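Annex B. Sample input.
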Amino acid sequence: MATSIKNDRMTILGWAMYDWANSAYATTSGAIVAAFFTGTIVPEEGFWGLSGETLWAGVVSIGAFVLFLGMPVLGAVADYTSSKRRFLWFFALLGAFFTMTVPFAPDGAVPLFLFLFLISQIGFVAANVFYDGFLPNITTDDTIDRVSSKGFAYGYIGGGLYVLLAFVLILMSGDDSVTGLSETGAARVSIAGAGVWWIVFTVFSLRRLPEVGEAEAIPEDLAHLPRWRAYASIGFGRTIGTAKKLLDFKHILMFVIAYMFYNDGTQTIINVSGAYAEDTLNLKTEQIVVIFLIVQFVAFFGALFFGRLADKVGAKRAIIVSLFIWTAIAYAGFVLPAQAADGESQMFSSEATLVYLLAIVIGFVLGGVQALSRSLYGSMIPEEASAEFYGFFSVFSKFSAIWGPLLFAVVSGTTGSGRPAILSIIAFFAIGIFLLTKVDVDEARSSRDRWHFEGAETTID
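Annex B, continued. Sample output.
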């Protein structure tokens, strides 16, 4: 691999701009799509006897399970063929296209809406695996935390700007509006526009992000097979071999297990927050969008702050600090008062203002835990198999992300309230913090040179 792209300014810009591109989808999913689903698509009496909030948490779990086994294999193939960029482009297109189709689901068409959203979610998560896989290729150990934080910072600004535009469109909608759109129509346009934004800025990003590495030839014992079967065999072979050998690397495995728990907590709060705000706190769509705007723009500064904090105290300690704050956030969500469900609600009612203040705290820590977890893991893995290892990272994170939303759905469905469900998420943070304290980062980083990859074989010294 050419080393000239390491710490190259334009390469890092291109890489970070993909976060700008796909964050319109991520923020729209939380700020608009979740509330649109629970408030418009799902009938008032629910669907299949379930509330919109419970259905939303359930489909997030299903999406995580679909991706559970496939990503390490695709990552191994991408590393072997040096095609991370092509895989990134394919899944970004898939996700963006289905994002643009989501708004065409009519009111009440719950299964169709969930199917379209599920495919868009698969494209989003899969593309991120190959995007993350570039990180060790374009950085060094002394820059990886700051570059990872820069990517998230760009994402927060890009996503925030898009949601701001969508918010303006929604505010200008309604009877006798200049746009001629109802509020529901404006929400549909905003969801579709996130897919357009995703594609346009992905093109900008990939023009500045070169492919890395050199493709390996298909081994002789697989040369007689069709190419897709040969690559599938290589992908499965390397994935199984790497998975078995991970057991010999105590500290990287401990980090991944810790990440599974605390990531489950943060992702559950992020994924259900829109539905929780609409269903439990009785907030309106406009208020929910304001919350997400606050989170997005504050997160820009939070990501940069935690990147610098990691330079001073180390990424592990900085993550632990953020997790204690996340624990307080979950408790605060439990005790927040609900807004009156009847009548017109003011944008800055006392109940909504408390949520806005909590959004500032969420924004501050959101970028820290995500960016530093990605970079800390990236500093522990072999560079030549980065997509494969980030595929494993995705498997573990998505496997863990099944249980938080599922627990939320079960608790909220059993109790009839999202409040005890949001409180139950604290357990994930507590376990994650405990396990993370047991990780020796220096030992994990020193073990990278023990890995060797040749064809479908994975060996260690």
